Structure formats: C-alpha cells, structure tokens
Amino acid sequence: MVSSVPLTRAGAFFLAAFSLALGSAASRAETTKPADPKPVKEEGGRYYDVDGAPTYNIKPDGQVDWLTYSGYRRYHAECHVCHGPDGMGSTYAPALAESLKTMNFDQFSEVVVGGRQNLGGGNDRVMPSFGLNKNVMCYLDDLYVYLRARSDDALGRVRPAKRDDKSKEITDAEKACLGE
Questions:
Q1: Does this entry carry the keyword Signal (predicted)?
Q2: 74-83 residue pLDDT tens
C-alpha cells in the first residue's frame, strides 16, 4: 500500500538507512556550522531554517513547538543513557549540545544513521548505527530540533512546560513511518 503522507527527512533517511546500516561506507564530510536557527518556513507544525533544515520555534512565553517537545522525550528515551541528560555529555559519549554547534542536519543524520568510530589514542568512542531503529529514525527531525535548541541555549535543561499540540500532518507522518 502506498501512503499519500509526504515523506519527511526522517522518513527519507529511514528508507536510505538500510544500505548505510549494512556497511556501505559514506564519506565523512568536515563539519559545517548549521544556518541561523530562526524559522523561515512552517509546514504542518514543522519549522525550517533558511537552508531547509528542521529547526525549533520557541515562543517568548517558553512554549515550544511539537518537534522540540517530542525531541526532548525521544532523546531521554533513546540517547541520554550514553550522551547524558539534556545533551550535556558523559564520560562515555560527547555532549551533543556542543556537537550541534558545528554539525548541520545532514551531518547529524549521517552519524545517527550510519554510526561513527573514533578509535585511537586511548580515547576510543563508538556510536552505533541507529539506521534500523524506528524509535530513532521516525523521530530524527525531533531529536535534531531538540538538540539544536539546547545547543543554541534557546531551551534549558528541563522538560518544556508548555508545548504546541501535535498537528495532523505530524501524526500522519509518524503513523506512516511506524507502519501503522
């Protein structure tokens, strides 16, 4: 059955993940600082920066968009065990709130999908591939948006107190990605 739900960046990466996760070596480009996080476009509750990358939208009263809130929840379900609470890092894995200062969405996605190994010098670090994990891949945009807000100090180290409601478009994309 073919879905009429538009494919999100996360969905596109999930479809491409099989070849990456199964060992094809993608070249690792140098890190590139992301564009200004200010949203310039909104589609169905998703916000995008000038480069078309997902970004956050936090209102002056502290209310966050759905993806930032969802990213907080997903990060603490899947990532904080290694990367520490709120993206602050641990002795085991780096602070993603710092990494995203120099990493754009495509580079972030490449690492999450394909994994990464930094070996040598007694400081070995291995990021496993999450390319086949729907609990990560279906929420890749959410994770990036949350960590981007943390990286820019736009969001504190607490659970967002207020959030936008989940849009129908986000709900439909989530169901399509999860195969519901």
A1: yes
A2: 999 988 788 8
